[in-house]
Design a protein that fits this description.
Layout: H1 2-29, H2 52-59, H3 63-71, E1 77-78, E2 94-98, E3 101-106, E4 110-113, H4 120-130, H5 132-135, H6 159-167, H7 190-203, E5 206-207, E6 210-213, H8 221-231, H9 233-236, E7 243-244, E8 250-251, H10 259-268, H11 282-296, H12 312-337
Parallel strand pairs: 1-5
Antiparallel strand pairs: 2-3, 3-4, 4-6, 7-8
Helix pairs in contact: 1-12, 4-7, 6-7, 6-10, 8-11, 10-11
Amino acid sequence: MTTTASLRRLVLPVLVLIVAVLSGLVMFTGGSSGAADTTTTTPVIAADTVDQANAQALISPAPTAQHKVATAPASPKAAYQTSVANAGTPNSSVKVYRNGSLVSYGNRDITYWAPNKELIPLGEALYQQNCASCHGNSADGVPHNQTPGAYPNLRGLGPATIDFWIESGRMPAANPREVQAIRKTPRLTHDQALAVVAYVNSLSPATPYIPRVNRLASADTSSGFALFALNCAACHTITGGGDALAANTYAPSLRNIPATQVAEAIRTGPGNMPRFTGNLTDAQLRSVVGYVTINIQHPVDPGGIGLGGLGPVAEGFIALILGVGVLALIGFWIGDRT
């Protein structure tokens, strides 16, 4: 009987300790929302369609580059308008044309480029196989059953928008009726995605083009942190772990997102995300992308284990598990012996 009574006295503190341990483990993982993205995507380096001389002009503009802009043909229509220079639209320091078409624009901070038109035939075939059943044969949002507006019209959105959804694996969607498309392993390869982008953009050419962040390793991450805290942390949390929003939607974790997709999301505003075109310059965009891909994705933890980046909250669970839990067991043990 004495042994049974002793075991019963230990049940409560042991249960308390188990709950504390499980809660601590949940906090240490630093997960985002319940529908958090778990796929790790390898960052990709976009192959520019501009020759080396013109690509160098975008990074270090020469005096003659401005003359080319003045005599160049008109740019494609912008899906998102802004009058601010160097803020995501062709209103940039340098534009590069080839055969009468705008192939690239940008400045020292961001280069925006369009996939090669030679990819259009392949892109059309891939589009019909993977996208037409929802978005229609002509990418106008009218599927085979002739239901207008059932799915988004892809015309005139610009390469950055189409590239983001395909390269992040959100499209083609596993379930088109989901409230929010989930990031997953892309069905198409990088080159196949660019082919689809080239085809869709050929139907109604538009900007923004696909952004490439220049000199990312030397980005001003201090300014990036301030801009991130002001514009992004409310949804993605200050540690970039993501969080739940309203109506079964969520802000995804940013801890495994390639730089190109971070820039594309900021410029195009996918899903519930606001669109930052005009209110963030390319220099500011480079700073934010640098902060996300350097500080958030590769944090420095001088104190040791990062505990999921949750700071005092996670440290409090350490105290609860190793402090209060152990003391509770010791107290029950002393009381039992007494």
